[in-house]
Design goal:
The protein starts with a strand and ends with a helix. Strand 1, helix 1 and strand 2 form a beta-alpha-beta unit. The chain is α/β, with parallel strands linked by helices and 193 residues long. The longest helix has 34 residues. It contains seven helices and five strands. The radius of gyration is 26 Å and the shape is elongated. A five-stranded mixed beta sheet has the order 2-1-3-4-5, sandwiched between helices.
Length: 193
């Protein structure tokens, strides 16, 4: 029996392509989930693996749908092999029910991990280069220092409610309190020096 597993990392992505490919391959049952491949706990994958019996084959659209690291992939495939369960990856044309497929799985998995590591390395280099040019990533600040200090003056006068202060400066109470907490922590640190 062919059992399919389809995974996407975010809700913005779609499972349709993977599910269609698994159906064309002849999967009798398809487990689907939305979870990052980095997360160790993938409930639907665990259910699919638990459902498999000796002689069955787990089918995925691509290797990276099953695991993010070569180590993780090898552990899953070895566990399946011990239980006499095959594995197929549609895109990479891997079928571990054959000796050639087993070899190809290891080689392809190594290249996939290399590719992810190179992407990570390039990303980190790009971020470092941007920081060196004075550009910082992340979300822009909701309040600049000048705006926060004006809000802080009103807060310290204790004549205006926090809600009114936040409405005046267009921020939420939570945001103001977060900036206030950060300000107090910095003040403490500077007092100790």
């Amino acid at each position: 029996m062919l059992i399919g597993y389809a995974r996407i990392s975010t809700l913005e992505q779609h499972l349709d392509l993977q599910v269609e490919a698994l159906e064309k391959t002849g999967c009798d049952r398809i487990y689907q989930e939305v979870v990052s491949g980095i997360k160790a706990e993938r409930k639907r994958l665990n259910e699919a693996i638990s459902y498999l019996r000796p002689g069955d084959t787990l089918v995925v659209w691509r290797l990276d749908r099953l695991g993010r690291s070569l180590k993780q992939l090898i552990e899953i495939i070895n566990d399946l092999r011990k239980r006499e369960i095959g594995f197929k990856s549609i895109i990479e044309s891997i079928d571990t029910t054959t000796p050639t497929g087993q070899f190809f799985f290891h080689v392809t998995g190594a290249f996939a991990e290399l590719e992810r590591n190179l992407i990570r390395e390039r990303t980190m280099a790009g971020l470092a280069s941007a920081r060196a040019r004075g550009r910082n990533g992340g979300r822009p600040k909701v309040m600049d220092d000048k705006t926060f200090h004006m809000a802080l003056v009103l807060y310290n006068e204790q004549k205006t409610t926090v809600t009114d202060i936040c409405k005046q400066f267009g921020v939420s109470n939570r945001t103001f309190y977060r900036y206030l907490e950060k300000y107090r922590e910095q003040k403490k640190e500077n007092g100790k020096e």
